[in-house]
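Hello again, I could really use a second opinion on something today. I've been puzzling over a protein and I'd love to understand its fold better. I'm sending you its amino acid sequence along with the backbone structure tokens. It would help a lot if you went through both lines with me. I've dropped the whole record in just underneath, so have a look.
***
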Amino acid sequence: MTSTWLQALSQAESMIPLLGKLGREKAVKVQLAGNTLMADSVTGLMAAFDQHPELDLVQVYQVLEQVLASNTAHTVVELESLIAEADVESVLAAQPNDGTETPVVLYGFGRIGRLLARRMCTLGHTTPGMALAAIVVRKACDDDLSKRASLLKYDSVHGIYDGLVKVDEENQALIINGSPVKVIYASDPAEVDYQAHGINNALLVDNTGRWRDHDGLSVHLNRPGIERVVLTAPGKEMKNIVFGVNDSDVTDADRIVSAASCTTNAITPILSVLEKTYGIESGHVETVHAYTNDQNLIDNIHKGDRRGRAAGMNMVMTETGAAKAVSKAIPSLEGKLSGSAIRVPVINVSIAVLSLNLKSATSVEAINQLLKAASNSAELTGQIGYSEERDAVSSDFIGSQQAGILDSLSTKVRGNQATLYVWYDNEYGYSCQVVRLMEKLAQANFTKAELLEDKAKAA
């Protein structure tokens, strides 16, 4: 990094227009050690570069100029890889090139649906290979469209959305940062013909949780215009994917996949590192979880045991399938983990307590060092965060983009017994994971379309 703060600040400011054009005009996402460089914040860029003092920011600027001048589009580029190569043009030439974006349909627009929309449409951010095309909801009231826009713009947990949201009543759409997003009203997925709305080969994300098996979600897949389906909940009879751990398991044959649960995404990356390094004999996962919309605000009838009691007044014992679901991403942990959950009166951010019996003895320092290194790796920087803050509390992690963040000062080790505490924003951190999976699937769809086009031309 350059010698003075003001020089570095000036250089970071000069990169904002380049990153903006790359995202806006070419759908290119630039990453540094797995972290996305955003065009909306000089402070954010400075924070990213502060983690890599070895970088020459003048060289970074030059590389960004080369990416912008190239034919590279609809893809992700790794900044450190480009800087390490003498021939940047050759590396860029090997990247996937321009083509049609995969349209995305959000089926359901609750907590996760709205955060997915925020993440996809964030100013200064790009989701290569895909664009939000439509939202499917049940009509709730006469001014439903305005209500949806307001809920997207204003959020009690995550604050006011830093973007423009307008209502287009005539075309029954929301205009998010200048892009029209069709709002389709339907009470059943079998009612919707997406091609009639100009949507083809789309990636549909089901945020309702109403259907969790292959047959139920196949109704989406059988509708005109839908190519793939992602479930934002644990799924049956399909692959449960934790991005960064087992996303390489997805093949073209997998037309329906699950993004697993927020808790599974929070703990699986850390467990994968520990399993690889030490081996895990057995363990228990206790998640202390923020209350959610499926609980009652005041005591009333509920189909689930205990969840009928007032969420804002009680700690509520309940069940979680997260521990079992880990083995779907890490098969070697099959049958080794148990789990339970306590819902508590906070509106967002949860913590998972991992009580593990490892196959070999270790120490607090060794585990913390191992997971800190993993949090800085390009492979897992989006999945594992690392906290050394002595005064950290749950609200500090609202808006965290990592799937889970290790509270390193709370790590306990006695021989081969380790207890780890993992914070996670069960709303936004999970939504970021879902978007990462969506990006991968969208780019796969795009590549497939290119190959089919090439074959057609060859014929």
About this structure: The mean pLDDT is 90.
